[in-house]
């Protein structure tokens, strides 16, 4: 009789069979999407594809198991790459036999050890293919990969239920199955961690821009709800700039994302942004529908709705109406609307925005103080406010008071006042601000949602937008993969084993981190596309409309939307004054105190500053405190430097948004 102790033996095929089931249930792209965040976003997809195929073909055997005495280097299990063996501490196994409520920890440790084995296999493949120089996988990296892998597998696989036999243990006379006991599963509320905190479009919408200007409506009697409804109309005009002919493909054109979007996709994105900005997610009241965005409500970019210069300087201009009939036809240089009216000393195309503004005020009058009426009024105010931010009205107002050194952004022509009122060309860098920055903020949010919000069917703002963007791809593979992951998350609350994992936060945030990962790829493409246009715009911004009569000022040269511009505060003051006057008359009309809506009053503000006097006192008061800013706006190179710095800052902000796009917690 041999008195030697028989070595303890642990046998388990659970982890391998679990991963094989998942590989058989997913296509290769879904498989890759799930495991990149664990084993490396920079690992080539061919490596993941090889593993996926080998699992489906039954070609992966997995590591051997070895039971070891207490090892202080690890608590429960660790993969040893030199022996190709998963080492498991004997006391943890026997504790699971004697105290079955500890069995979930052992099962997760075995799954995590299998994850370490996979990390080693992937690392070896990358070394063999020249993707990685270091021959050895760092131990801490392997442990982290194993921990994330165990959490992800518990998240994906709902098959582990109470009573599951996941391994078999033999030692001396003992031969016993290891059975999963979920009797101590924590309640969902106890398990969910606190959500971690990570880490202007034009006057731009929101604080410091149109939204701030319209706070002046409080002073004439409008309440918070009414101001919100009015601002919605203004906000819509800002965001209709997303639906730009430079970005939109024709309805019957092939997909060409990210160079082009469908109009429906851009509209859907704006609707999501509107929900975030205006719709109370806790309130199902009827008024929530007042802030829904449809193609009809949003419309498309029209120069006339923003008082922009509509002149198209492209060598071979495309007719935007061939893309979508709602766009405006191109206005070519030298045509009548690009000329200066001798009597008014204003560009002729400005008549069209004024007519649009008046039409919207009359529409507001017809609709009354309803959601539709207030939205129309907000759209009218958008034109009025843009006039002061996007024209040279401020500059010419300073000329009127003797500060003729201020750049007027035009040359003298034959007209009543010599220097005419002009507005700027909307172009590539403006798309950078109106598209890239808002998209960046939602794709790479500063905060994650509270986990209690992640209920079945929950989709964060960034997830909703990524679903739309992925739907713009010709190949639906990535869309299906992302939908699959979201569907799996919908079921996580029904999976008791997941409540024992150590990486719950990381796993629950995986869809959002994948948004950040794919968002990074999107932004790389978008940066390249925008870079070409920014280069073109910077070339045009180098032309000097103050000395070259052939040069049209760009929107960026004239824009006072940002506080870096010397005349930002003065433009805001003028806009607030005009909005207050027009808002007061609209308030009185809706209350039946006056007979006519303020269409003529609003139109009267859009004139040459030499033909009005209301702004003179504002300018004089501003000059008393800001005389130094006059000099800053008197040198072309100085203002160009401000513009270049603004573009540089915007690009830096966007790069900062995406640089941590695969942050994990």
From TrEMBL:
Transmembrane segments: none annotated. It holds the Pfam family Het-C. InterPro entries: Het-C, VWA7. Residues 537-561 are annotated as: Disordered. Residues 549-561 have a biased composition (Basic and acidic residues). It comes from the Bacteria. PANTHER family: NG37 (PTHR14905), VON WILLEBRAND FACTOR A DOMAIN-CONTAINING PROTEIN 7 (PTHR14905:SF7). This is Heterokaryon incompatibility protein Het-C.
């Amino acid at each position: 009789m041999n008195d030697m102790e028989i070595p303890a033996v642990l046998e388990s095929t659970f982890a391998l069979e679990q991963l094989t089931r998942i590989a058989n249930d997913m296509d290769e792209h879904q498989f890759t999407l799930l495991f990149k965040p664990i084993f490396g976003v920079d690992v080539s997809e061919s490596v993941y594809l090889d593993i996926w195929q080998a699992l489906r073909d039954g070609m992966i055997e997995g590591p051997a198991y070895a039971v070891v005495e207490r090892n202080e280097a690890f608590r429960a299990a660790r993969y040893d790459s030199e022996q190709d063996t998963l080492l498991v501490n004997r006391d943890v196994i026997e504790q699971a036999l004697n105290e079955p409520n500890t069995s979930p920890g052992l099962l997760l440790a075995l799954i995590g050890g299998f994850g370490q084995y996979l990390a080693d296999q992937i690392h070896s493949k990358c070394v063999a293919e020249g993707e990685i120089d270091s021959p050895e996988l760092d131990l801490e990296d392997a442990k982290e990969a194993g921990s994330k892998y165990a959490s992800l597998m518990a998240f994906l696989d709902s098959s582990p239920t109470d009573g599951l036999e996941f391994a078999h243990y033999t030692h001396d006379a003992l031969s016993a199955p290891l059975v999963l006991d979920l009797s101590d599963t924590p309640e969902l509320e106890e398990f969910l961690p606190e959500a971690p905190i990570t880490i202007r479009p034009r006057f731009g919408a929101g604080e410091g821009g149109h939204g701030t200007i319209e706070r002046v409506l409080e002073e004439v009697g409008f309440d918070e709800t009414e101001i919100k409804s009015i601002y919605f109309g203004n906000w819509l005009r800002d965001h209709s700039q997303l639906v730009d002919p430079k970005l939109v493909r024709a309805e019957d054109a092939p997909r060409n994302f990210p160079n082009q979007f469908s109009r429906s996709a851009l509209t859907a994105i704006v609707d999501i942004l509107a929900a975030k900005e205006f719709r109370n997610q806790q309130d199902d009241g009827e008024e929530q529908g007042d802030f829904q965005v449809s193609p009809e409500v949003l419309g498309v970019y029209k120069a006339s709705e923003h008082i922009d210069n509509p002149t198209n300087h492209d060598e071979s201009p495309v007719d935007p109406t061939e893309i979508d009939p709602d766009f405006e036809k191109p206005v070519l240089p030298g045509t009548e609307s690009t000329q200066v009216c001798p009597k008014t000393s204003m560009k002729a195309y400005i008549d069209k925005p004024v007519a649009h503004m008046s039409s919207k005020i009359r529409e507001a009058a017809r609709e009354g103080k309803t959601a539709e009426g207030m939205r129309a009024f907000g759209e009218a105010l958008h034109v009025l406010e843009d006039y002061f931010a996007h024209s040279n009205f401020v500059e010419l107002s300073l000329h009127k008071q003797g500060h003729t050194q201020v750049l007027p952004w035009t040359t003298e022509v034959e007209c009543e006042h010599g220097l005419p009122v002009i507005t700027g060309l909307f172009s590539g860098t403006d798309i950078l601000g109106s598209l890239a920055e808002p998209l960046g903020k939602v794709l790479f949010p500063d905060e994650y949602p509270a986990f209690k919000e992640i209920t079945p069917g929950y989709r964060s703002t960034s997830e909703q937008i990524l679903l739309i963007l992925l739907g713009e791809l010709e190949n639906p593979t990535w869309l299906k993969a992302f939908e699959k992951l979201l569907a799996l998350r919908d079921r996580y609350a029904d999976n008791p084993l997941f409540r024992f994992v150590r990486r719950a936060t990381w796993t629950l945030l995986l869809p959002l981190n994948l948004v950040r990962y794919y968002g990074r790829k999107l932004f790389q493409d978008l940066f390249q596309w925008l870079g070409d246009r920014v280069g073109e715009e910077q070339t045009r911004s180098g032309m000097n409309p103050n000395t070259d009569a052939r040069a049209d000022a760009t929107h960026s040269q004239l824009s006072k939307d940002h506080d870096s511009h010397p005349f930002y505060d003065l433009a805001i003051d003028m806009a607030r004054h005009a909005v207050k006057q027009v808002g007061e008359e609209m308030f009185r009309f809706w209350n039946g105190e006056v007979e006519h809506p303020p269409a003529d009053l609003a139109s009267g503000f859009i004139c040459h500053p030499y033909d009005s006097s209301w702004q003179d006192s504002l300018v004089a008061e501003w000059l008393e405190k800001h005389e130094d800013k006059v000099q800053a706006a008197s040198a072309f190179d100085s203002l160009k430097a401000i513009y270049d710095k603004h573009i540089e800052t915007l690009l830096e902000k966007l790069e900062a948004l995406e640089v941590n796009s695969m942050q994990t917690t």
